[in-house]
Specification:
Blueprint: H1 8-24, H2 28-33, H3 39-46, H4 54-63, H5 70-75, H6 92-113, H7 123-147, H8 152-173, H9 180-190, H10 195-202, H11 206-213, H12 220-234
Helix pairs in contact: 1-7, 6-7, 6-8, 7-8, 8-9, 9-12, 10-11
Length: 235
Amino acid sequence: MHDGAADGGVARAGALFAARRDELGISQRELAKMKVISAPALIAFEKGRSWPRDKTRAKLEQVVKWPPGTLAKLSAGAQAPGEDAKEVPRDESADLLSGAVLMAARPVLGEIDQLPEAEDPMFSDRVRETLASIRHLESLTAKAVRSSQGSPEMLKLLREIRRRYDDLMARAAAAPGATLAQRLYTARHDAALSVEEAAGALNVDPELLLAAEREEPVSEDLRVRIEALITDLTG
C-alpha cells in the first residue's frame, strides 16, 4: 500500500522510529500538534511508504532524543541508539508475534489466488473481504517489524503484503462493481499522490480519505468530490 517509492531501509527506519515513539509515550497526534509532521505523513513514514525530508527527519530525531542522522543510519541497517549490535536481547513476545504473523500470512495471501474471475457475481464481495483481511495482516506485520527490530524476514513479508495489496486493489478497481475505495486508492496510487496530497486537492482532512480507502462510510458531498478527483486523475 505504497504512497510513494519505498524500500526495506525506509520500512526499517520507520518501524524502529515507531517503536521508539511508543517507548517514550509520544502519540502521532502529539507530533502533529507540535507541527513536527502531519499524522498522515507520519503514518506513511512509519509504514515504510515515504521518506521524510531532511528537516523533518531532524525534528523527528530531536523529539525521540536520537542523535542527528540516526534515521539515515537506521535505513542503512545500523542498530538503533542504545542497542548492542552484537548482543540484541531476544524478546519472547516479539518472537511469538512474528511467528503468529507468518502463520496468518499464508492463508490470507492465499485468498488472493482463490478469488473468482472479475466477471463472477461473487467477485465484488469476495475481494472486499480479502482486501480487509490484507489490511489487518499489514497492520500486524508492521507491528512485528517494530517489535523484531527490523527482522529481514518480517521486512520481506511486509513488502510482499503491500505489493500484493496494490496489485489486488488495481484488479478490483478495474472490475465491474468496483467500490469508491478501490477506485480512489488505485487512481491516487497510479498518479503517485500521497493521501495528504490528494486531501489537499480536495481541501479535506487526510483522515477522511484514509477512512474512505478503508471502505468506511463518507458523506454524500465528499463522495461527489472524490468521484470528481478520480475523474481528473484518470482522465
